[in-house]
Every structure is written in C-alpha cells, then in structure tokens.
Design goal:
- This is PD-(D/E)XK motif protein.
- The protein is an alpha+beta fold and 321 residues long.
- The protein folds into 2 domains: 126 residues, no CATH class; 186 residues, no CATH class.
- Helices cover 32% and strands 24% of the residues.
- The strands form 3 sheets. Strands 6, 7, 9, 10, 11 and 13 form a 6-stranded mixed beta sheet that branches.
- Strand 6 and strand 7 form a beta hairpin.
- The radius of gyration is 22 Å and the shape is globular.
Length: 321
C-alpha cells in the first residue's frame, strides 16, 4: 500500500502548490491526495458518468465532504479541518480505498463508498454525543487483551490476527482465524463467574471450531487500560503500515475515544479461562429453541461448563493447523 501519509507530511510546508498525487495505484478506481487553499489535507475519489448517491449530505466530525462535477466527471473531496485528527483522517481514507480495491463495478463501488461514509458519519456522531458504556469498555478490554496475548505468541501470523478481529465489524463472534472462532467475554471478578450470551447465533454450530474466552477483571491502580493495550498492540504491528491502519480503523469503529476519561481506567487482567464449545455445552441456538423463539439472551453459570475448559495451547494448535 502506498504510504500516502508520508506524502502529506513531505509536502505540508508547500501546501496546494505541491499538486495532487495519485495513491493506491493498484486500485481499479482513482484516488488522489493534496491540499486545500488553506493548507488542509484533502483526499479525492474521482469517477465518470455516474450520478452518485447523496454522499454530500453526510457529515463527519472535523472532516468536510464535498461533491464536485466537471463535465462528465464527479469528484468526492474529503478535507481535514483540524490537523489534530490527521490519524483518524488517514484511517477513514484508507478504509474507503480498501473497501473497493477488489470491486470491478463502478456502481457497486459508489454504493460501498456511500455506505462506508454513512457508517463513519454515524460512528463519529455517536462518539461525540455519548461515551462507551461500562460493559462496552470492559468488552473491548477483553478483546484487546486477547489480541495482545495472541500477538505475543510468535507462532501466530500478525496479519491473520488483526484481520481476524471481527468484533468491531459487528460479526457474530469477536475473532475468526483460519476457521477457528473465539467469542470474548469480560466481567468483573466480583461478579458470579459465568458467560453472558447476547443472541441465539453467538454460540451456534456452523461446523467451525468455537471457543469462549472469559476474562475476569479487577479495578486496579496500576494495570492494563484501553489506551495502554492499544499502544502495546500498535507497537507490535507498527512496521506494517497497512496493518496499523487496519487496527486503528477497527478500534475506532468500536467507539473508542482516546480523549475520554475511561481510556486510562486500569484493570488487573489475568489470563482468561478458555472453553471449547462442543457437544454437550449448554447453549441456546436457533436449532434447539422452541418454535416461535427468534431471539434470546442468557447467562451460563461457569460451574456447568468447567468440563469444557481447555488450555490456550490447544487453541493455538488448531489455529496454526
């Protein structure tokens, strides 16, 4: 991937007179970067002869959207209004370009870009109006803690782990790597030990191996925080700019705000208890509930799944084949 952020930095003192640069050269669609008259970073997506959806009606925090037409050509322009958000801006731009890198149809590409912008608009709007709930914070602590634990194992392929983190994408399970799924749960150590399942699909059998990773957290003056876990993981993937952007995109999608008070709330995070979901594991799925039950959330007491505890090495061996 073309590291266009370095190009922005290289020409920041020159500004608009530096010109416009093509980025993502292998992408079937045209993406460019440059600067506005006032020296703000800009990102362009240009195409011909297709009336776009109502992209210009969307709004993104600290990012101005504009749609221009010249002859038969349309150009979508994203302008960064505050330089403090340059990392977020880069993540949004990379996300848009990568979302269409394997798309051949212009019509589909425009639709995908619109939906991605709609998602970012919704995310940034929500993050400015509310904070993550305690359950969401602890859930993200659990997901990041598992990612860090896996990434520290040299037997795992880093790209597979980051790309396999599916929680922020809204998938049924939080992690999916090489045909192995992991659902991550995090609760306070003071609570009754067990697993809170939020849907009938979460522990459904789809012929892939499935595990549940349960973290028991304790508030602590010193320990892991969302900010420290993100910093640790970024240091692991820092040499691969594409993976770094992908990781940032995902934790931003999760609703995390680095400026929020909760970002530095610290917990003692011991290694998780790992359960293999196999025959006999107590669970509700679309296949075993009575007709008419289409949704359910429930709690599984840990004493009833103790026989299903497995070592981390077993999970590791399955993922690595």
């Amino acid at each position: 991937m073309n590291d266009f952020t370095l190009k922005w930095q290289e020409h920041s003192s020159t500004g608009k007179s530096a010109g416009v640069f093509r980025v993502f050269p292998d992408n079937p669609f045209d993406f460019f970067i440059g600067f506005s008259e006032c020296g703000c970073r800009e990102f362009y997506f240009s195409w011909e002869s297709l009336e776009p959806e109502k992209i210009s009606e969307l709004s993104l925090k600290n990012i101005q959207l504009g749609l221009e037409k010249s002859g038969e050509e349309y150009t979508l322009k994203l302008t960064l209004l505050e330089n403090d958000y340059k990392d977020l801006f880069s993540v949004v731009c990379v996300d848009l370009a990568k979302a269409v890198e394997n798309v051949k149809s212009l019509n589909i590409a425009i639709s995908i870009v619109y939906r991605r912008l709609l998602r970012w608009s919704d995310l940034l709007s929500r993050s400015s109006k509310r904070t993550m709930t305690l359950n969401e914070q602890r859930g993200l602590i659990g997901e990041l803690s598992l990612l860090k634990l896996i990434l520290k194992k040299e037997s795992f392929h880093t790209a597979s782990v980051i790309n396999g983190w599916r929680g922020p994408e809204g998938d049924t399970n939080d992690l999916s790597i090489n045909g192995v799924r992991v659902e991550v749960k995090a609760q306070l150590a003071s609570q009754a030990k067990g697993i809170r399942v939020s849907s009938l699909q979460q522990l459904e059998d789809d012929k892939r191996e499935l595990f549940v990773s349960l973290f028991r957290l304790s508030p602590a003056e010193k320990g892991a925080s969302l900010k420290s876990l993100i910093t640790d993981i970024e240091s692991i993937v820092a040499q691969d700019i594409e993976l770094l952007f992908e990781f940032r995109r995902k934790y931003l999608l999760s609703g995390y705000d680095s400026e929020a008070d909760y970002a530095e709330t610290t917990y003692n995070v011991p290694e998780p208890t790992l359960y293999g979901v196999a025959d006999g594991f107590p669970r509700l799925t679309p296949e075993n509930v009575p007709p008419g039950v289409s949704a359910a959330s429930y709690f599984i007491d840990a004493q009833y799944i103790k026989p299903f505890e497995v070592l981390f090495e077993y999970l590791e061996s399955l993922i690595n084949g």
